[in-house]
Amino acid sequence: MGIYSRYNPPNITNITFSPNSTDSVDPDVTLNVTLFVNDTTSNATNVKFQYRRDGTSTWTNATMESMSGNPNGYYNCSWTPVAPNGIWNYRIWANDSLANEIQL
Fold first, then answer.
1. Which domain holds residue 74?
2. Measuring CA to CA, how many Å separate 11 from each of 20, 22, 29, 42, 78?
3. Is the confidence at residue 47, as pLDDT, over 80?
4. Would you say the C-alpha torsion 88, 91, 66, 22 has a positive or negative sign?
5. Can you give the pTM of this predicted structure?
6. For position 16, which CATH number holds?
C-alpha cells in the first residue's frame, strides 16, 4: 500500500478498525472503520473505503459518512467480509473541492 497525492490533498489520520483483533475478523463479522479527515485548503468532498479479496483486481467502494456533518472531521463506514476465509486488502481515498486527492 503506497501513498500518492496531488498538491494539498486532504489529510487522513486516526484510522481505527473495530473489532481490531485479527482473531475477531472472520467471514460475516461486520467491521467498522473510523478515521479523521482534515483539509486546510478546501473542504473534503468524498471519502471512500475500498476493499478487495487478495488476488483479485476489483475494488469495492464503501462511501464513508461524516459523523458530524462537517467536511473536516471523523468519518465512518462498515463492511462485512464474506466467506470463504482469506486475506482482504483495503485502501482509503479522499478528495476535496479543488480536485486534490490522496490514497492510502
1. 4-103
2. 22, 26, 29, 11, 21
3. yes
4. positive
5. 0.83
6. 2.60.40.10
